[in-house]
Amino acid sequence: MSFRPVFEAHPWEAVKASIYAKTAADVERALAAPRRTLDDFKALISPAAAPYLEQMAQLSHRLTRRRFGNTMQLYAPLYLSNECQNICTYCGFSLDNKLKRRTLSSVEMLAEAAVLKDWGYDHVLLVTGEANQTVGVDYLEKALKTLRPHFAHLSMEVQPLDQADYERLIPEGLNTVLVYQETYHQADYKTHHPKGKKSNFYYRLDTPDRLGRAGIHKMGLGVLIGLEDWRTDCFYTALHLDYLEKTYWQTKYSLSFPRLRPAEGLLQPKVEMSDRELVQLICAYRLLNEEVELSLSTRETPAFRDQAIKLGITSISAGSKTNPGGYAVEPESLEQFEISDERSPADIAAMLRRQGYEPVWKDWDAALA
Amino acid sequence: MTTQPLVIADRTFTSRLFTGTGKFSSSALMEEALLVSGSELVTVALKRVDVADAHDDILRHLHHPQFNLLPNTSGVRTAREAVFAAQLAREALETNWLKLEIHPDPKYLLPDPVETLKAAEELVKLGFVVLPYVHADPVLCKRLEAVGVAAVMPLGAPIGSNKGLLTKEFLEIIIGQSKVPVVVDAGIGAPSHAAAALEMGADAVLVNTAIAVAGQPVAMAHAFKMAVEAGRLAYEARLAAPVAHEAVASSPLTAFLD
Do A276 and B257 touch (CB under 8 A)? Predict the structure, then answer.
């Protein structure tokens, strides 16, 4: 059992055409529905929904507050390594990019962790490239063991692993795994991932199934917006979420919607998504699913983030560095992508409080893992 | 105008009205009512039929090609008893389909979730097509799905109470997340209840008391047939939800995008 047959039952062009065929009447029906379907979601992300943005925002704001209250989760990425055997056309760590590669030692990890702890973080997201010789499961296990005593909640965004590997890491304190499909457009996926293990589309597509079977507590899904038609790609994300929620019903889910940012010597987005469209997507996700966590990173600008947090977002990062050693060990090294919001976690917390939100630094406990 | 057929395990049903065979004033009346109802799945209590008798009064009246029999374990109080009764039913009625019901409480006949899950797991392993009668408990339904039941049958209200969809909020959750068909069983007292269940996306309903003890059971069976068809057709046609238009004078949340 996996998502694959569900995915294959929804051909890209047919999905895309059905989204663009949605009318104002479809949008109004979707807005009024007590429970929204995937078909309603198509209407809400369609061009036909553009005039209804304020109404969607109001609804999204209300639903989000009802479920999550006046709180905002905070987390920070901790980049452990930029070694990578993959070529990804949009990524600063791509194999063919000439940059100094570094993988943090345990001592270095702790030095980085100390900075994040000092800022108040109890939740970190461990990030690596894909280099199975040096940054394989053994390394990840060591990282979890090293950092677990210092954080209540450990998330990971690394290469897709086998089910047995996840089963090995979960008891070491691994709570959450983020694995983004990048794009559900198979041919385009191949173009953007020509080399390395990542070029296997279906291995990546089935990763959430492997995570679900391994019993992961939470997983994060998403696509990299800019590679393909964002509406169609995000429909597949919603379809994937729908399948996963029904299949691995004991797992929590979060969604992200990173917009492609300029990175060292890399491609420009094929599809541009405006701020207005990103707000539409955030609200549509919320209107489809009242329980899912929605996460917004420092890729977005302060002006946008300060407003967007009211529209459905439940989790944000702050103070992020996207280079291994970026917090303490080697702050000057090359980043994976450019950060737009460079405010400190303290500034972000103050901004949240001004807007009536309580910043939440800790929402899990090592004793529960 | 036709609606999508319902598939459970290896069988396809045109009618989404499942029926019971108890409480009729005669087997002949039962037969007439069930024929009019269009039902293709008819549950019969093992305890009510004499399986040794080829001319059993109830079974004799159910000899129609459109009636698939769904033996039920009514009367058993534990998983062990249910498994025993199921094997007996399979042999006697020559079907591996089973409505699993375990209600140790003789007053309200409420299903025992612990014993039901235990029995379901064992019966699936023994090759039964199991349709368990359960409380409208979404977690239990997912647990049952995981052990391999063919459908779940959550109750709308206490059995025989005719009170309708008292568990609506929970039925909605079950319907929303189930990967197997959801059959609302018990409590449906009027055709409007049945239509409402189908409108909200239940795959079928099971009705017994409301037909059997109606003033005119045959006419009521017909009324239920139409209600179930209407409910399903409405579900597939997608209901026009009440319009919650709130006048939005300004754009306080999205003005920053201008």
Answer: yes
